[in-house]
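User: Okay, second chain of the day. Same drill as before: sequence in, structure tokens out.
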Amino acid sequence: MVKGRNRLPTELLLLSGIPGFPSLTTKTKNAVVAGGLTSFFFGVYFYTMRAVVGTYELQVAIDKFEDLKHRNEQEATLAPKS
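Assistant: Same drill. Structure tokens below.
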């Protein structure tokens, strides 16, 4: 490493586009990254939970279809054959 440079090259590449970010202290940078990651994962969690709850309507429709299919099969077997 060159004397006086304590930043990794990847840090410079990834975070150089955010104005003022390189001048923050390490603890502040960690807090910003932790907040971003926490927000992302909570967003994914709530999106997933909402998507899972939405599948209940689909399950009700499948159950109705299977019930109708079962009734039609019973009627077909009970119908007199001529």
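The CA atoms of residues 72 and 78 lie 10 Å apart.

User: Thanks, on to the next one.
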